Amino acid sequence: MILFQNLKIKFNTSLFFTAIISLFFSNYSQSQCGFQATCSNTNYLNFGMGSNSDGPTIEYDNFISSFHSTVVRTAQGTYKVWGQKMANDGATDVLAPTEINSTNYPAITGTLLKAHLGGSQLIVQGVLLTTTGLFAWGSEGAILHPDITSSTIFQKVTINGNTQGLPIGVAPSDVKMLFSTHLTLALTTCSGDVWILTQTGENTGTGLAGALSSAAALQWYRVTTSAAGNPFLTNIIALRGSKNTMFALQSNGKIWTWGTETYLGTNTAQASRNRATEMTSPSANPIKMIGATRTEADTKASYYILYSNGSLYSLGYNAQNQLGDWSTTERRSWIQPRYTSAAGLVMNNIHWVSPNEHDARYPAINILTVDSTNYNWGDANGELLGRGGTGTFSPGIPNGITALDKILAVETGGHTSMLVKKCQDYFGYVGHRIAGSMGDGTANVTNESIYSFATAVVFICGATNLDVSVSGTPTLSPGGLYCNNTSLDITADPTGGTFSLSGPATLAGNILSFTGSGNTTVNVVYTLPLPGCPGTVSTSVQFLTENCVLPTVTLSGTTSIAENAAGVATLTATLSVVASTATTITVAYSGTASGVDYAASSVTITIPAGSLTGTVTIDPTDDIIYEGSETVIADITSVTGGNGATESGVQTATVTITDDETIPTVALSGTTSIAENAAGVATLTATLS
Question: Are 401 and 417 in contact (CB under 8 A)?
Fold first, then answer.
């Protein structure tokens, strides 16, 4: 069964469309855009302009572009990919967004968790993590050492004997973040450990240096620090970087770096560091995001930090204007990018950053301000910034959009920038167009110098206009379908629109009840006039239902207990099958025993998720009064949770409290004789034993 809480299904629509929600999760997952959350603080919706300021839960990777290839996590619970060498054979171009599934990529097993790209120019490789492990396809050696894969074809990989392709002891469900770049794959666990699979010794963070041998490149390395004794780097909440630079954010706000191209922000030159070394932070405020980019021509790195208060800082190499300070001067201490000129306002109102981090060559960055405006700067090779040329640029708004356009998400690739605009179904594209990189179904070759929206419709998780939310704990079948004769709460954001319904169901307020039998389809349509968008905006959410055998609850337990017993009587509620959500059983007590004769531990019994039983106890009160045997009758009055669990008929359990006092006897005594004329009386006394 599926734990399903607070599902937000987001759609960016100016046209009507339908999304089918099909959900297949583990027992411990939380559903977000239809994906399994691998950690308790995973929030795939915390992305782009929909993101909050909470650094530990930021989702960096719903939108990933390398050089001419892109992969996105969609709002409909799928991954889609397009561009150069992205077909199953790892050599053929994919001209339009194509779902990553077992039909298109037959070697896939398990549920998709994370998809990534990395490489350098035309050398690009894809990496996919599912619940069964790691897969790869595309140019061998672009991310993973070529000895890990047997060809360019999509395949499952085994690393150091582990058929899941992960570090020994790390399960797919333990992976909070993957980060891919040229020659390196980095992994951050839910607990904050960092593991590196790389072809470069310094990137391992273990003291190694230089290009690794084949044998050395075929294993994961857990990163250590430069502190005394070289302890492991722990409690990491985000890890980003570029080809020769790893950049990590710790839960305490500290930042760390390692690799052959690193700065510390201490007014010292770029240097090689083969263990994680603490950097100087430019501010004591909480950090929201980190990122890095690099120039292949000069083999130099540049860093970015976005603070939760909106302040953006940059550090490092700057020959291509990538630091945004309107100069080409290397900055060995942190500085702030500026608007309009070297004397312009500093950037203190930034909401999102996207540097070119997955491709190795051209240093560039796109940012979104708090009012959803897109600026970019750096190296515009291939016109990747849309700024009217292929040179280098200081901060500005790209051609084809204006400050009036509200941008929901942006991604900087190796040779292109892409964005999602409010009220626009088709994503925007600028830069080198080749091999299907624009996703428009063609292989046309040109430089798009102005943002084009003649692309494809892709709804990216966390970057959409309408939210239709299912809250609470809907009842789902083992196959992930909704159960007939159950209900759920459905709400929409923004409010003010109207719901309509088709299929065997009723909608009373926000309560949607499935009333059909067998396999049915229920469509809920939400429509509203969205401010800033022409006409009305509609979205349709489709629910697939079937008949379900719901769990049932029975009640049993101790049948009798002595009043003076040392222990307690235990009543046990038992589910017919394990449920993925907790079951709460409310119990009422009656019988011949009164409240002073016993103490019940609770009026509810809780069966935890994944368990079959829960208990309540009856503790008799030992007194000196003979009352005979008395009964406590426990009666189930309600059952909630437990994937729609119900009481099995009428369930009661009776506990008999046996009295430890004996039946009292009466003895009669008194005056044995009295004179007839006595002044007093003879007294007879009845005495209870």
Answer: no
63 and 40 Cβ atoms separated by less than 8 Å = no
pLDDT at residue 4 in the model: 32
Paired with 138 in beta bridges are 125
Q: Output the pLDDT for position 608.
A: 93
pLDDT of the residue at 367: 98
CA distance readout (Å), 504 to 226, 383, 473, 482? 64, 53, 20, 12
Low pLDDT (below 50) residues in the chain: 1-31
Q: Is 55 helix (H, G, I), strand (E, B) or coil?
A: helix
Euclidean distance between CA atoms 198 and 259, whole angstroms? 11
pLDDT at 5: 32
Query: Do 465 and 11 meet the contact criterion of CB atoms below 8 Å apart?
Result: yes
Q: What's residue 465's pLDDT?
A: 66
The single residue listed with the structure tokens 């839910």 is 190
Copy the structure tokens of residue 670: 């008194």
Q: Which residues contact 471 (CB under 8 A, 6 or more apart)?
A: 5, 6, 7, 488, 489, 490, 491
Could you give the CA distance from residue 489 to residue 508 in angstroms, rounded to a whole number? Answer: 10
Total Cβ atoms within 10 A of residue 373? 18
SS3 109: coil
Q: Among 113, 149, 243, 256, which residue's Cα sits nearest to residue 194?
A: 256
Q: How far is the first Cα of the chain from the last one, in angstroms, to the nearest whole number?
A: 62
Question: What predicted TM-score, i.e. pTM, was given to this entire model?
Answer: 0.73
Whole-angstrom distance, CA of residue 556 vs CA of residue 572: 5
Q: Residue 16: its pLDDT value, please?
A: 32
Pairing of strands 31-32, 35-36: antiparallel
The pLDDT of residue 32 is: 67
Report the C-alpha gap between 358 and 180 in whole angstroms: 6
Instruction: Report the pLDDT value the prediction gives residue 146, as an integer from 0 to 100.
Output: 98
Closest of 343, 333, 326, 336 to residue 378, by C-alpha: 326
Between CA 377 and CA 350 the distance in angstroms is 14
Contact 461, 35 (CB under 8 A): yes
DSSP of 511-580, one letter per residue?
EEEE---SSEEEEEEEEE--TTSSS-EEEEEEEEEE-----EEEEEE--EEETT-SS-EEEEEEESS--S
Q: Which residues, 6 or more positions from 250, have their beta carbon under 8 angstroms from its beta carbon?
A: 192, 233, 234, 235, 236, 237, 256
Supply 618's token pair. Answer: 């009856």
Which residues are registered as beta bridge partners of 657? Answer: 561, 630
Residues 6+ apart with CB under 8 A from 549: none
Which 3 state secondary structure label does DSSP give 458?
coil
CA distance readout (Å), 533 to 404, 478, 570, 648: 12, 40, 62, 52
CB count within 10 Å of CB 343 equals 7
Q: Please list the residues that pair with 249 across neighbouring strands.
A: 238, 255
Phi-psi region of 597 (alpha: psi -120 to 50; beta: other; left: phi over 0): alpha
Distances (CA, A) of 326 to 196, 302, 382, 567: 35, 15, 21, 79
Name beta bridge partners: 583. 607, 641
Tokens describing residue 282: 């430019």
Name residue, tokens 């992960």.
166
